[in-house]
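Thread: Newbie trying to understand structure tokens

Hi all, I'm a second-year student working on a class project, and my supervisor (Dr. K.) asked me to get a predicted structure for one chain before our next meeting. I've only ever worked with sequences, so writing a 3D structure as a token string is new to me. If someone could post the tokens and maybe explain what I'm looking at, I'd be very grateful. Here's the chain:
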Amino acid sequence: MKILIPDTIDLRLSGDVDAVVYDIEREIPEEHRDAEVLVVWHNSGAWLEQAARMLPRLRLVQALASGADVVLRSGFAPEVRICSGRSLHDGPVAEHTLALILAVVRRLDRLRDAQLDHRWDEEFNEAQSAKGTRAQFTLSGARVTIWGFGSIAATLAPVLRALGAEVRGIARSAGERAGFEVHADADADAVLADTDILVSLLPATPDTADLFDAAVFGALQPGAAFVNVGRGATVDKGALIDALSSGRLRAAAIDVAKAEPLPADDALWDAPNLQITPHVAGNRPIGASALIDDNVSRLAADRELVNQVRP
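---
Reply by user tm_fold:
Sure, no problem. This is what the structure looks like when written as tokens:
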């Protein structure tokens, strides 16, 4: 079975396969257009659309990103199975999400600005120690809501709990996941009303487009913080900027945006109290070779695939 492997990652596959490394910036060579499996990592949408037209024998597209939304939009034939890299990024994304949460709680942006100004920020010191601000400056006792409670959240939530946070989730259906209470989307307003830190780990789907809008930010208690390590398409940019400008949100941090790379003239760069990282939360799939080996074996045996999102 011929498998096309991108040159953006080093993989070590086992089994009886013909692994061919391809350049994600160039057209697939004609002699390799008979491939049955395509692995994608950091491929552009335009490249994927071209690949969808060039690979007539393709049976599986294995994305290594936690979400396969770009692949799903690329026009691969309906019979081509599409799988995501869900779980490959649990540890790294949980780490980065924790870093952003701590950054907004501890206001590292403000403290960094003070350092650049050679200024000892006494006002911050006073605000941090003032009565009634405990949940704003420490995770101990803070109420953290994670919207999109999947495998990344299951990795992150115990760490937040260990630091003293009260953690709960929001997902399509209510229940208990990984030992944490998860509320249904329909009950979100009641949960948001006493949330100190709202974290999004949601994928980009038609149902989540611009989900975080003025109504959601308005449902949060004043002074809450927002962290998005899911997808930029889930956030109404104007509503986020307005919430930060009005003070409804005390601070926010995002690792994703609708337009990536974020244009130099984008209004998000100048939004007050916003920290931005360039979509680097994951960026290092862990266990990718084993996942591909498993799915290739399953494909050959016509068995259900791991992380299959279509068909």
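A couple of things are worth pointing out once you decode it. The two ends are 21 Å apart (CA to CA). The mean pLDDT is 96. Feel free to ask follow-ups in this thread.
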